[in-house]
Amino acid sequence: MTGPKGHGLEISTAVGLVERYAAAFASGVPDRPADDGLFGPGSVTWRLAADLSAPVAGLRSVLIQALHPLAMAGVDQHSDWRVDPVGRLAATSAYLATITYGDRAAASRAGGRVRAIHDHVRGTDPVTGRPYAAGDPALLLWVHAALVDSVLAAARLFGTPPVDEDADAYLGEMAVSAELLGVPRELIPDRVAALEEYIEGVRPELRRTPAAAESMGYMLDPAGMGEEIAELWQDLRDAALATLPGWARDLYGYPEPPALTPGRRTEIRQTLGVFDAVFMAEPGVLEARQQLALRMRAAKG
Amino acid sequence: MRIRGGKLVAVAAAGGVSVAALTVLGRRSLRVQRAMAALRLAARGGARYASNAPRLFASAGEHREQLRNDLALQTAEDVAATLGTMKGVLMKLGQMASYVDDGLSPAARRTLSRLQDSVPPMSAELAAQVVTEELGRPPEQAFATWDPQPIAAASIGQVHRAITHAGRAVAVKVQYPGIAETIEADLGNVGLLRRMLKITAPSQDVEALLAELRERVTEELDYRREARHQQMFARYYEGHPTIAVPQIVEELSTRRVVTSELADGARFAELAGWSQAERDLAAETIYRFVFRSLYEAHAFNGDPHPGNYLFHGGGRVTFLDFGLVKRFTAEEMQPLAAMVKHLCVDSDPEGFRRAMVQAGFLVPDAPVPTPLVVEHMAVFYDTVRERGPRTMTGEYASAVTRKFFDFRSPLAPYARIPRSYVILQRINLGLFALLGELSATADWRGIAEEIWPFFQGPPCTPMGAAEAAWRAGRTERMHAGSLGQ
Questions:
Q1: Is the ipTM of this complex over 0.85?
Q2: Which residue among B1, B34, B191 sits closest to A227, beta carbon to beta carbon?
Q3: B303 tagged catalytic
Q4: Do the beta carbons of residue B22 and residue B4 sit within 8 Å?
Q5: In chain B, what's the furthest Cα-to-Cα distance?
Q6: Which residues of B have a CB under 8 Å from any CB of A?
Q7: Taking all residues of chain B, what is their mean pLDDT, rounded to a whole number?
Q8: C-alpha distance from residue B278 to each of B244, B267, B312, B462, B468 (Å)
Q9: Is residue B153 pLDDT above 80, yes or no?
């Protein structure tokens, strides 16, 4: 990872990380939405997207997604993540913000753009020798399942845990986002039990390919990232690993993390709070959150 | 943007963490740099949270008030969500850093000092709920008149106007419900802070630093302590020609509610439009207040925050907010006075050095020649070395701050700041910056001579003469040499 300019590699890179994430978020929150979009301010999706645990969910999500060899091969062979890993993540982040908070037209446009990109992402996985296509509903579904499962897992451990009904409601809401990219509705698990069953069913296909090992090694300990962020990233990494299911840890060969004591959990939450404060100070973030807060409050009552 | 180490140290200092621990870092190891970076990030979190938050309302323009109401904190859960998981702690650090940071422009510092504006106010219902819990009656009954619309934000609460049943106009400061528990929880789990401090100040007793940080902030969470201090200052300065401290209404003050006489006046920012003569007088009063309180009352209000003054013209100033008061024993004061006396009155460098060692500012037998010690320390005494008018400037305040954070000084490895004196650094870091912002001119030495207990100089200004008359007329209670009971 290289810094965009000026101040020495480490600092400028860290600044880039925070800024680009923040810009991605702010860009997805509309000033004057034509409608409430795919979910709306009263949705569980909006609440979980704003949960303190969201960064943990993001990191866990890519860790799980990368274990599917074909999904990983698509990213590895068709994106420039090595050149610009932050940009690659920020693009995903911008997409998610848009489909979450944008109005229906904006979500639809964003979905169309991603589908168009996916059309060109085809190839053969060098590890399994199997052909892949990013538009393959099976792959899209895996990526979707990893995300929603991670959002729930992270919130349960480090955020405000959703009650069971809300967790089910969340999966029902988010099914729309998988549909948006071309997954047939009937394939999408819309309850926690169905999601677990689905993930269990995919597990035999999962493995740690060299590309997964490389990219996730980077994600857990991003080289060249500003040391100030790196200090806190350790906690983010520990948090993501703590939420990982045992089978995923085993596939990666990560040791079982020490039991999460209440004190350590609080410390990680504090780190997430510091992250959040830094993030919030970036241009546009506070204004965006303010708008969302007003809409959520209005929706409540 | 690279943030200078000074900022980091200032923030830590402001948080009550011993500045000493950070000033004595001579050479910084890689490990230390790493830790500095971590702490800097926390500081940045606080500072940027602070500096950007006002936009939340500023950007709303004319709808500002409506927006504040729409976003008002309605429940204790809202408070926890807004200020929990370190944000309250960061805000406190950012708030304190806002007036000790030489790396910030006055404008940026003012922006930071407006941090309190950034948090939405409590809804009228939530504020009333706190008052009810604290005073046992809803505010409409506890007071003859209660204004449900807050008039100002306080550091962890907000201020309402009211009229007591006795007919006194009062300001009622109401604390956010749950904020004390939230901040205490964050300070009760100090894993993150400990990690930062351990590498930042490896030579120091990290547990002691953490204990101090917790102590300082916890003190501020209990309004009763503040009320006690304010009442002491109010009694002490009763009848003073230019210094006013609002009286506390004790029967309407509790842990989360403090009621005091309502004071009104011009805000610090408005002084910019006043004549320089008026600004000089205001500065003289502030200067007298700080050093009279310290040398005579052995008490120091460690919060020289621009928002804590109301100005009335003619040098009359009302002092607000006594959330961070430190009282000194005679034994603690003695070496401080001795240092000033040896350096500025007796011109006795060796005596100055002995007093420094006695106070604990300098380790005994430090291999540093005395002239160098004096050279390093002189800047702190610059304004009281000689008689005659001198103008406080922002440059002087910055020079003091730079000297204070000079890690490369040959003296640095042997300098310490004993825990009980840490708060006094706010004179160097806060007061001088404030007076510098006023570009205030006065014969500071002359004023100091009036106040120094070992000098007892004659009045050197009209205000000094008025003060002398006030002192002569004070009752027995006022002469005690420390604040009243």
A1: no
A2: B34
A3: yes
A4: no
A5: 68
A6: 1-2, 33-34, 37-38, 40-42, 44-46, 48-49, 51-53, 55-56, 59, 67, 70-71, 84-87, 90, 185-186, 189, 191-192, 195
A7: 78
A8: 17, 13, 10, 14, 21
A9: no
d(CA A190, CA A127): 32
Block residue for tokens 């008018």: B389
Low-confidence ranges of chain A (pLDDT < 50): 1-15
Residues of A in contact with B48 (CB under 8 A): 277-278, 281
What pTM value is reported for the model? 0.76
Q: Which of B78, B117, B303, B321 is catalytic?
A: B303
Is residue A286 within 8 angstroms of chain B, CB to CB? yes
Report whether pLDDT(B117) > 70.
Answer: no
Task: Verify whether the Cβ–Cβ distance B44 to A227 is below 8 Å.
Answer: no
CB A100 within 8 A of CB A28: yes
Q: In this model, does residue B76 exceed pLDDT 70?
A: yes
Q: Could you give the residue ranges of the DSSP H alpha helices within B438-475? A: 444-451, 462-472
- Which own/partner pairs from A115-118 qualify as long-range (CB within 8 Å, at least 24 positions apart)? A115/A181, A115/A182, A118/A181, A118/A182
DSSP B73: B
How wide is the angle at C-alpha B347 spanned by C-alphas B343 and B352, nearest 5°? 40
Task: Determine whether A167 is exposed, middle or buried from the number of CB atoms within 10 Å of its CB (0-12, 13-18, 19+).
Answer: buried
Q: Which pLDDT belongs to residue B3?
A: 28
- List Cα–Cα distances, B225 to B30, B180, B324, B325, in angstroms: 42, 14, 9, 9
**Coil, strand, or helix at residue B406?**
coil
Mean pLDDT value of segment B220-235 = 93
Find, in chain A, the residue whose alpha carbon is nearest to that of B49: A281
The helix-helix angle for B276-295 and B330-340 (nearest 10°) equals 130
pLDDT surpassing 80 at residue B433 = yes
